[in-house]
Amino acid sequence: MATFRVGVTASYYNADGGFIDGGMDLTPLENDPDIELVRVRKVPVLEPSDVRDLDALFIREVELYNETSVHPNHRLTHLARFGVGYDNIKVDVCNAHGVALTTTPDASRRPMAVATLTFLLALASRLKEKETCARMGAPGFQLGPQLIGVGFVGRTLGIVGLGNIGREVVRLAKVFDLNFVGYDPYVNNDVFEELGVERVDLETLFKNSDFISLNCALTDETRYMINMDYLCLMKPTAYLINISRGPVVKQADVVKILQDERIAGAALDVFDPEPPSSDDPVFKLDKDKVILTPHVIGFTDQIVSGICAAATTSILAVKHGEVPKDLVNSSIVENADWTAKLERYGAGQFLD
């Protein structure tokens, strides 16, 4: 029977065959009689044999899709990315071979902004240090009053990347009466003005901020954009937060600046490489002043269900011959190969 075949990459599953992310619900796909779900084998880089018989692929950030992944039959039409980062997917390869790439910005915006604030609040209150004191018992309670946190009123939050998540961080953080500075060369001035964020260059941002949050995408321009030259400009009382991608910063430089206690602390949800090796120097940093989470700080029941719903909606749109929301490569709508496949789907014509 001819079907619209949707692949699900192996990184979604745990050892027992269930979904690793709580809240994953593919029922809308499972209940469609014209859709066949296929579990794709576990590989670091998708190969042509993995995508040969697929019309769409539900993909995470773990697997790579690049020039070696393309199958000559050009059947693959859609990569539905779970989340918003897509540095594991070669967009130019998608464009060249008639593949649409979608992400899930609406579902990610609020949870990831809240995750940024979670780090911000934990660092400012010196939460980990205070917990350590509490666990010491009576001696710790005597030390506790010495652990004075940082108030927000009049302090400056610098945001690198005023995209979907960065803007939501500002909206949510307004209640703290912070000042905001931002760096994003791709965002118009009216966005800065609307948000009440002062537009500055990176040097000024790192010099003047009490908290710095990295919320930019990983691109050729942002890879290792933050290095020792900028980190050295930070105030000794300042904190660094990274929930974007590990390679946005030179991790060795972050480790060095923290080892030398030249800044007050940091919170890192992403690493380079990822996952780090067990002997990575990042794990030897002061546990009370450096918060580390395994690229899941924003994972809640709502983000998982929301992302899953958005991705399945995009897949169903393509299956029905419609242009999906949240296209990364919007020029694909002018690709003759892609539009021909979309027309075939819209007519209910699927391949065996």
Question: Can you summarize this structure?
Answer:
This protein is α/β, with parallel strands linked by helices and 352 residues long. It has 2 domains: 4-103 and 300-346, NAD(P)-binding Rossmann-like Domain (Rossmann fold, 3-Layer(aba) Sandwich); 108-292, Rossmann fold (3-Layer(aba) Sandwich), CATH 3.40.50.720.
Explain what this protein looks like in three dimensions.
This protein has 352 residues and is an alpha/beta fold. The chain has two domains: 4-103 and 300-346, NAD(P)-binding Rossmann-like Domain (Rossmann fold, 3-Layer(aba) Sandwich); 108-292, Rossmann fold, CATH 3.40.50. The protein is 33% helix and 14% strand. The strands form two sheets. A seven-stranded parallel β-sheet has the order 8-7-6-9-10-11-12, with helices on both faces. Strands 2-1-3-4-5 form a five-stranded parallel β-sheet.
How much helicity do the residues have?
25-40%
As residue ranges, the low-confidence spans are none
DSSP E strands, number: 12
Shape: elongated
CATH C-level of the largest domain: Alpha Beta
Counted by DSSP, the helix tally is: 13
Q: Estimate what percentage of residues fall within beta strands.
A: 5-15%
The CATH architecture of the largest domain: 3-Layer(aba) Sandwich
Biggest sheet, open or closed, and with what strands and sense?
A: 7 strands, parallel
Distance between the termini: 6 Å
H-E order? EHEHEEHEHHHEHEHEHEHEHEEHH
Class by alpha and beta content: alpha/beta
Q: In order across it, which strands form the biggest sheet? A: 8-7-6-9-10-11-12
What does the radius of gyration come to?
22 Å
